[in-house]
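FAQ: What does the model actually see?

It sees only this:
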Amino acid sequence: MGFIVDDGAKILVADDDPIMREFAVLHMSSPQVIVETAEDGQQAWDMLEQGDFDLAMLDLDMPRLDGLGLIMRIRADERLAALPVVVATGRDDLFAIDRAYEVGATSYVTKPINWRLLTYQLRFVLRADRAAKAAALASHSSSGVAAA
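And it is asked to produce this:
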């Protein structure tokens, strides 16, 4: 089936469920997409600090550092603040949804995952992020030229 993405991407999936991590690799990896996994929020944070990821997908309920705490760390870090973060969790209560967006989630999906639908959502999130970065770069470049 494969991940439906136009360009290459490097995705970090953080979930304490080994089956979920395996499914993520199976359904989201492609010749253009590298999927790396972390078994908890702390390991994900360590990987984010070391790697150059295009998107992070994470569970809310994880040991050592939960998903909300991880999102807060990401948003507080200047290098990672703009990283798209998709929450993939079994929690569908209003508090969890509202809190995830309040701390900076880009998108939110609930388990069980419809992998085909998720890949389309991730493609949209990646495209929107890349378009925003391109627009910011173009704006910055044009303002620099005008000032010269």
